[in-house]
Amino acid sequence: MTSRTCISERLRLPAFSAVAVSVLALAGCSGGGDPQAGPTASVVASPIQSVSDSASATPSGTPTPKPKPVYKPADAKGRAQNVPVPVKPAVADKNTKEGLEAFTKYWFALLNYGYETGDLTSWSELTANACVFCSNVKTSVSVGYRDGRWQVGGRLKTPSIRSSFKPNSASQQVVVQVIQEVTKYYKADKTVGRSPEPGTNTAVVVIAVHAKGKWAVSDMHLVR
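^ that's the sequence the OP posted. Answer follows.
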C-alpha cells in the first residue's frame, strides 16, 4: 500500500541587443607652401555593446513534493484510510524453517489488511478453498464490508510464530499466537451495526504446503 511527482523545468533564454558607433575619420592640412605631412588622425571608436534586458537562465522552482498519504485507522465516522499494503519478504518463498515462518507472518499481515479494508484478494490467493476455518473468516469480513458497511478495530498481532520444520515433508505446521482487538461494526449510514466482537488472544495451528516455488495455507484450526 504510494505518490509520485513529476518535475518540469522551463528555460528562459537571455536576449541581447547591440549599439554600434560609426567610425569618424578626421584629417588636418597645413596652410600655404608645400603640403606638410600634417598629423592625420584616424580615430576609430571601439564598438560599444550594451546588453539590455539580459537575464541569466535560471531554472524554474522545483515543485514541493506531495506529502505521503497518512494512515488513518477506521472510526465511527468512516473506514480506514491509506492502510499500508503488506510487502512479502523474499525469504517467505523459501522452503526452509525461516521461509515458512516469514510466510506465516506475511499471511497474517494480509489477513489484518483485510480486516481493515475489506480486501482479502491477496490473502485468498495464498489460501486453499478447502480451509473451512479460512472460508468462515473470509465470509465474516465480506459481510462486515457489504453495502457500504465497515469495521472498526479487529486488527491482528502475531507476537509468537513457531514451526517444527521437517525437511521433505509434504506439509508443515506452524503454531501462532494471534491477538485480535475488539471489532465494532457500522452501517453505511454511520449507525452501529451488530454487536461488537470482544478481543481475543488465542493459539492457532496453520498447515502450509510449499508448491511451485511458494507457500500456501491449506488449513488452520484453533489449538484445543
